[in-house]
Write a structure and sequence with these properties.
With 131 residues, this protein is α+β, with helices and mostly antiparallel strands. It contains 3 helices and 5 strands; from the N terminus they run E-H-E-E-E-H-H-E. The protein has a 5-stranded mixed beta sheet with strand order 2-1-3-4-5.
Length: 131
């Protein structure tokens, strides 16, 4: 089963922050990154993906953190992203992910930040065919 690009979801941890960073959730780097990605994905030339804010991806030691997922595709979690400089890198990575059938972008074809920042690769969910 393959998914259309519109079914691909970019999850952005909005609670990510650097040690000693602001307590105000709106000012945290994760929230800033989510806002910047939401604005970038609203542009006509942006990849057709859904962006969702999530409260925590449990990668607190490697902020900012995102996950990319889609039906029938591998899910990837990436950390060590910057709210100020990673938007274009993330869009590039999402475009490459969307161009695959199963979410598996060859390692050498991933943006450098995705090669270095990968936290986890999770297999596609498969529904139990036994009723």
């Amino acid at each position: 089963m393959t998914s259309s690009p519109e079914e691909i979801c970019l999850h952005v941890c909005v609670t990510c922050r650097q040690a000693g960073g602001p307590d105000d959730k709106a000012l945290r780097p994760g929230a800033v990154l989510h806002q910047a990605l939401t604005e970038a994905l609203a542009q006509p030339d942006a990849p057709k993906v859904r962006v969702e804010a999530v409260e925590c991806l449990s990668v607190c030691k490697r902020p900012c953190t995102i996950a990319v997922s889609g039906p029938g595709r591998w899910t990837y979690i990436y950390g060590d992203l910057s709210a100020d400089t990673s938007v274009e890198t993330i869009l590039d990575g999402v475009r490459r992910y969307a161009a695959t059938v199963d979410g598996l972008v060859p390692w050498r074809e991933r943006p450098e930040a995705f090669r270095k920042g990968v936290v986890a690769r999770i297999p596609p969910f498969k529904a139990n065919s036994a009723a």
